[in-house]
Amino acid sequence: MKNNNGINNLNQSNSDRAKAENKEAKKSGAVYIVGAGPGDNTLISIKALEALKKAETIVYDNLINPSLLNEAGLDAELIYAGKSGNAHTLEQEEINKLLITKALEGKTVLRLKGGDPFLFGRGSEEAEELKKAGIKYSIIPGISSALSVPASAGIPVTDRRYSSQIHIITANTQKKSEESFKSEKPDYHALSKLDGTLVFLMSFNRLGEVAAGLINAGKPVSTPIAVISDGTTQKQKKCIATLKDISLKVKQAQLKAPAIIVVGEVVSLSSQLDNFLDEYKSLPLFNKKILLTGSRYMSLKLKKLLDEKGADTVMLSLIETVPVYYKYFYKAMEELESYTWLVFTSSNGINTFFNQITGFEEADRLKYPLDLRRLQNIKIAVIGKGSADTLKKYGFIADFIPETYSLEALSTGLVKLLKQNDRVLILRAEEAGEAINKIFEANNISFSDIPVYKTLRDYRRKAELNRILSSCDYICLCSSLGAEAYFEMVETNKKIDANAKIISIGPVTTGTCLKYEVQPLAEASPYSAEGIAGCLCRLQDNLKK
After folding, report:
1. Is 449 one of the catalytic residues?
2. d(Cα 514, Cα 512) in Å, to the nearest integer?
């Protein structure tokens, strides 16, 4: 069964628990109007991030960092309402109605906007409509690009030597006339007389008009002006000139929206103060945008490794792992001491198992959490080094790791160690193959094979995937199931270009790619997150030669 977003429903117990916890909230519903900050996803506030994790419906804009949506709940409804230039996915009136409708359904709704929602973000219009409808709402401010982007380019918008004021303007001015809005140009004569710094947002396409308007109104042609695109991200570019020649220089530099414009003497400080990302520029993956499509656990692990190499990572999990609760798992826990070996075929299985036995959600009807001392006489086998590292987090050292990362190597290697009275408990994914079972059966090994989690495809991410593919330098496929999800979701007109950027984590995933008639650009070795990081670094080294 799938919900409206395409991701399979979680088990009923989780759903019932969530409904019970939110019973009061669902009577009236509520909307959070939230600023996500500029392009750097780490600049979102703690309060905003917590609201994002709890929201049941998220209505988000074009300029938010897609990695933020990886923090949404697995059952959260994701609705894209962005606009680029004059292209609107939803008109403002439709967005207002959507927020009201979802709130009246009893949902906790999060309206996620780039920058700050009350600075040219129409957040005030949405709040007004919510108030008229009697809907509860809260405003969570965000860091505005008007301040953060100049700062990242070494431009202080105020400085006691040059400017004690800042004026934030948009060239896309609209004023209400009766029941409609009429577009008007800014009053350049008034602006030219202002002391301090002028910051223009959403005005890149009118750069020529802005420069000419200020000059014609009396601003000196030598006035410093900066245009900064993709601010606070590794793709950030800037062009500094004067009002007279800024349009030509921006064209030569090939800057594109989103971009902001800064006018004033403070711009001259940029050459002295701009050290944005200096510590990363010498790293091997600097300025490379890398898409991580694996589960949240794998994406986070890979992100940490790639960030250390200077990469610009985007987490867009196309698959999710969720625990499954079966009676025979409970029975195995009750007779745990009868097993002599535990076998884990993935890091996800390790995480799920220890989360279940140490922080079990259904502890009221079971004899859990488990006393970990019950594991003291049980040996543990894992499929690879990555799984062994995950096991260490819980205070256990693997007793067996195969030399080759595969189910066959794990099972055949373990068979050589097992004795006649050994009993093995395999804890794995629900959709895992039966390679271990067949080898154990052929060798008369006593074992129990129990799924502890399942992997679901998150179809909510399909639209976002296809929106950002063209901007990515590499696409990491970290499992066979993840590869299948990727090829199922990517649109036909995106495939040819995107397929040339694929990095596979290993032979099994590569085999899946080949089934879709795609040869990955490269394959990791070893078959792990560390292997992918090394593979990407080698690719970049080869390009530099």
Report:
1. no
2. 5
